[in-house]
Amino acid sequence: MTTRISDDQLDLAVSRLLHGDSPANILDSFPAEAADLRPILHVATTLETLRPVETPAVESLVSDRNDFLAQVTELQLQPVSPTPIVRLKDWISQQLSRSSSTSTPQQKEIRKMSALILKAALILVFAFGSLGGTLAAAADSLPDSAVYPLKLAMEQARLTFSNDPGEQAKMHLAFAQERTQEMVRLAAKGEVPEEALLTRMQTHMRTAYQLAAQAGEEQMQGLLTQARKMTQASGQDLEAAQEQVQERAQDRLQQASGMMFRWQQEAEAGLQDPGSFRWRFGPGGPCDAGDCEPPFGDGDQQQHQHGPGGPPCEGEECEPPYGDGDREQHQHGPGGPPCEGEDCEPPGDGKQQQNQYQHGPGAPPCQGEDCEPPGDGKQQQNQYQHGPGAPPCEGEDCEPPGDGNQEQNQNQNTEQNQGQGDTQNQNQEQNGQGSNGQQSGGSVDSGGTDNTGGSDDSGGADDSGGSDNSGGSENSGGSNDSGGSGSSSGSGGGNGRG
Amino acid sequence: MERGKERNTVASERESKRLQKARSFDRKALGAIYDDFHQPIYSYIYRRVGDVEVARDLTADVFRRFLQAIHNKTGPNQNLRAWLYRVAHNIVVDHYRRRQNQQHYPLEENIICVGDDPIQAAELNLKTEKVRAALLCLTPDQQQVVALKFLEGMSNKEVAEITGKPVGAVKSLQHRALASLQRQLVQAGEEVPA
Predict the structure, then answer these.
(1) B42–A76: do the CB atoms touch at under 8 Å?
(2) Which of B62, B81, B105 is the last residue of a domain?
(3) Residue bearing the bigger pLDDT, A73 or A116
(4) Does A86 touch chain B if contact means CB atoms closer than 8 Å?
(5) Among B10, B162, B144, residue whose Cα is nearest residue B89
(6) By Cβ atoms counted within 10 A, which residue in A256, A320, A460, B63 is the most buried?
(7) pLDDT tens-digit profile of A281-309?
(8) Same-domain status, B99 and B143
């Protein structure tokens, strides 16, 4: 039950009382409410009796303070691990108190929420607004743009978030097509598309085909049909663009066009013979490691088909991959003679094919014990890649073996010593490369450089090791190398090993 | 007016800095806080409970909670005074609730009041105890407003800050609290002019 006096009137009367005004004066100010106000003012006066405070003894106060400081020390030693929410709240509070430190305490409470809302809104606007704009710009960007990496990242994200291999294959095809469009647009701007662009396109195409090779029959047919259409359209675009661009860009577009043509042929061949397609692009197949990618240029194409040092292919010999010639190449290695009869049978498994590579390019198919690997798989691979006449190697495997690849080189030499025929074939390969000019010369350089690097590195420290194995053989290998090096200054280091 | 605002701002910034130091368990800052607020908080509690030892214990409890709060990163970021008074009020209410349970008293809404128990009221000879007992018959919010305004001498604005209520609500609480106190004191035999 309240009195007839209002809250404000009562508050005013009480305030005057608390400020020392007498009750009589106050009641005079409120004659109409005096009857209600009088007992209330009396109660308010009565409360004064509670105001006196009995203070504790000084010792008690000191003791209490010491207890408090002891608690400070105790809590200081306890580990603090507030929850992330508490930490976030703390951080937000600190930020807000910083930003509103000039306001009065009461305003702070109001501003705290408003600042939070305002900040959140601004963050959302800037984050999503600018990000959306940037993404939109990136999606249409070219390799010379600063946001182009974002475009590639977005593509990668799309691939990552897709669990369906069929969908991924379609995406790779679309991305490959996008790369060709980028080349066309760059060339139209008067720029020469970088080789990295071609590499990306190739990677997308190869991955798409690898995924297609693992898909079901029907899905693979669908993907290959799509790939055929896409490669055809892209090839036409690239060819059409060649006429309107500079000469240098023209060459690059021509390269890309050639690649697309090859991929188109792969797709057509896959549609006709799905089994071979699966074998080529399936796991463990020759195209699984990217060895059978359509090459960048005509010269490379010849090299691919006949191996380094082989004569340029023409006419039927240059027919696309599903011809017999291609399989022969894989069986005999680059530069090897065309195989016939049983030798041309497709390899039963990847291992057999690998063993053939172990004996060096151009070597006859190995059988039985001869096919046993001389070391671990890595050595075999390295040997294949670094051996004379091997296709140009890429990546770390091509690094000059100054990093302790001595064993690898020894194995390589051992392999060379296993048959003079191998060595002779290698020399032939190198001579052939020399006559082929710059492209094949690069191949010799890589092989020669490896040998040189290996021997230089091991020459001082591991001479004894070399002689322990087969010093004489090494010398003979060295002399053979030197024979080959006559055509290439890059392999001059091979003499140094001897 | 402007000067007053500036003073408030400076004081607020100073307190904010001190709290930041306290949050990192700076002994000097914590000691200064204790020295500044121990006496007012003790007085506030003593006026509510009327016992030195109890008031000491409850005051120590207030500062213990403060340390625990900054240790857990949940303590006050600003207006430490209001925070401490709020904690003190809660501790007093808890104290009476615990005591009520121990003595099988009714719940707080029907807390033992001098008007309800004439025998006990007869035992409370001292006027102050009568008033304090009458105060316990109020709701916790009313008790807090009366204690802060009439015992601690705070303005409506300060009371509003501590209680977290608008000034209008404080005035309303004050009105109802005084009317209720009047009834309690009348029932307790206190002479209240009509």
Answers:
(1) no
(2) B105
(3) A73
(4) yes
(5) B144
(6) A256
(7) 887 777 765 555 554 444 343 333 333 33
(8) no
- Give the nearest chain A residue to B171 (CA atoms): A7
Residue of A6, A10, A26, A53 to mutate when probing chain B, most B C-beta within 10 A? A53
Closest by CA position to A293, among listed A263, A251, A254, A335: A263
In angstroms, what CA-CA distances link A184 with A40, A193, A201, A207, B180? 93, 8, 13, 22, 90
Both tokens assigned to B166: 């608008």
Query: How far apart, in whole angstroms, are the C-alpha atoms of residue A389 and residue A426?
Result: 6
Confidence of residue B186 (pLDDT cuts 50, 70, 90): confident
Domain boundary among B54, B86, B105: B105
How many CB atoms sit inside 10 A of residue A255's CB? 21
Domain ranges of chain A: 1-38
Please, are residues B151 and A51 in contact by the beta-carbon 8 Å criterion?
Answer: yes
Tokens at A265, concatenated: 């042929």
- Asked if B43 is an interface residue toward chain A (Cβ–Cβ < 8 A), one would say yes
What is the number of structural domains in chain B? 2
| CA-closest candidate to residue A391, choices A346, A439, A359, A428 | A439
Asked if A81 has any chain B CB less than 8 Å from its own CB, the reply is no
Q: Return the amino acid letter for A387.
A: G
- Asked whether the beta carbons of B164 and B132 are under 8 A apart, the reply is no
State the pLDDT confidence band at B39, using cuts at 50, 70 and 90: very high
Count Cα neighbours of B119 within 13 Å in the Cβ-side half-sphere.
Answer: 0
Q: Does B17 touch chain A (CB under 8 A)?
A: no
Contact A3, A36 (CB under 8 A): yes
* Interface touch A65/B34, C-beta < 8 Å: yes
Confidence of residue A357 (pLDDT cuts 50, 70, 90): very low
A160 reaches B (C-beta below 8 A): no
Which of B:109-128 have CB within 8 Å of A?
127-128
ipTM: 0.83
The boundaries of the domain holding residue B54 are 1-105
> B85 and B45, same structural domain?
yes
Do B172 and B129 reside in the same domain of the chain? yes
- Selected residues 57-86 of chain B with any CB under 8 Å from a CB in chain A: 59-60, 63-64, 67-68, 71-74, 77-79, 82
Distance, in Å, from the CA atom of A44 to the CA atom of A56, rounded to the nearest integer, reads 27
> Is B171 found in the same domain as B81?
no
On the question of pLDDT at A20 being above 60, the answer is yes
Nearest CA in chain A to B155: A15
With both helix axes pointing from N to C terminus, report the angle between A438-461 and A420-436 in degrees, rounded to the nearest 10.
130
The Cα–Cα gap between A203 and A225 comes to 19
Across the interface, do A69 and B174 touch by the CB < 8 Å criterion? no
Q: How far is B124 from chain A (nearest CA, A)?
A: 14
Q: What is the pTM of this model?
A: 0.41
User: Nearest-CA residue of chain A relative to B11?
Assistant: A104
